[in-house]
């Protein structure tokens, strides 16, 4: 039996009173899954996961993490509750070394466990150990995302939530990021992933939702959604590159 880790029901959220951006969106994420959220630009994907992470005011609906209601939990308590959010940008401290970036992410760990946990992150991300003394701002785009993900993973979250980790990266680093996420999932981590890069995200995902106008409009097995005509329709006006091209990237 699958076990639901994250259960988001009828979520409504927005930045200003009376202007809903997320309008009744529902998703579930089971333990060990990668769930992908796709959707056209401006669909509300970032707002949706930011609201889950406590960063956009919620006006309706519920967010349950391992059965616990975290709907009203402030953002700074999320890590302790087990939800680690990696924003699309500004997800590392560029002037600090790689190692210090990791150290400052260990707040909820027992002090005596920190050195070993940092070594575990280095073992999982060998690129980072070579650059442990480097200022994070000097890393390549792909390595930066690696560091951002390592910072989130270091505290053993119940669910890792990522906003477009491949955005703005060159193709080589895009591939690196998706390989990294597939590897993390293999190690048993549960992932909620928002992506523009639909093809690559569906290739590593288990299930996916398409969000449009702040609502979940369609849901399916990740590998089947790529050629799903409903998905193409939901992207109308702003189609992902594959639509109508028989699956070419
Ligand atoms: N900080 C903000 N303040 C007010 N409106 C915002 C803010 N961020 C996003 N929005 C609005 O919310 C809508 C959805 O944006 P967003 O969640 O970023 O969509 P997506 O991530 O799917 O591209 C857009 O209309 C956008 O203008
Ligand atoms: Mg976005």
From TrEMBL:
Question: What InterPro entries does UniProt report for this protein, alphabetically?
Answer: AAA+_ATPase, ABC_transporter-like_ATP-bd, ABC_transporter-like_CS, BCAA_Transport_ATP-bd_LivF, P-loop_NTPase
Q: Does the keyword Ribonucleoprotein apply?
A: no
ABC transporter domain mapped to chain residues: 6-238
Kindly give the Pfam families that the UniProt entry links to this protein.
ABC_tran
Which superkingdom, per the lineage? Answer: Bacteria
The answer to whether the entry has keyword Nucleotide-binding is: yes
- State the name under which the record lists this protein: ABC-type branched-chain amino acid transport systems, ATPase component
The scientific name of the source species is: Mesorhizobium australicum (strain HAMBI 3006 / LMG 24608 / WSM2073)
């Amino acid at each position: 039996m699958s076990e639901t880790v994250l259960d988001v029901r009828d979520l409504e959220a927005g930045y200003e009173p009376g202007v809903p951006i997320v309008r009744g969106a529902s998703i579930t994420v089971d333990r060990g899954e990668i769930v992908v959220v796709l959707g056209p630009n401006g669909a509300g994907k970032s707002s949706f996961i930011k609201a889950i992470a406590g960063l956009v005011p919620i006006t309706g609906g519920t967010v349950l993490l391992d059965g616990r209601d975290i709907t009203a939990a402030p953002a700074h308590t999320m890590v302790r509750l087990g939800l680690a959010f990696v924003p699309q940008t500004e997800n590392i401290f560029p002037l600090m070394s790689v190692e210090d970036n990791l150290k400052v992410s260990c707040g909820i760990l027992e002090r005596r466990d920190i050195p070993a946990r940092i070594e575990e992150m280095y073992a999982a991300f060998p690129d980072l150990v070579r650059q442990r003394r480097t200022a994070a701002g000097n890393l390549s785009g792909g390595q930066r995302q690696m560091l951002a993900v390592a910072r989130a993973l270091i505290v053993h979250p119940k669910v890792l939530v990522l906003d477009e980790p491949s955005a703005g990266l060159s193709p080589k680093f895009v591939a690196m990021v998706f390989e990294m996420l597939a590897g993390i999932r293999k190690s048993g981590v549960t992932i909620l992933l928002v992506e523009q890069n639909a093809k690559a995200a569906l290739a590593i995902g288990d299930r996916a939702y398409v969000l449009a106008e702040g609502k979940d409009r369609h849901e399916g097995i990740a590998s089947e959604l790529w050629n799903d005509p409903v998905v193409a329709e939901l992207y109308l006006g702003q189609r992902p590159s594959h639509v109508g091209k028989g699956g070419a990237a």
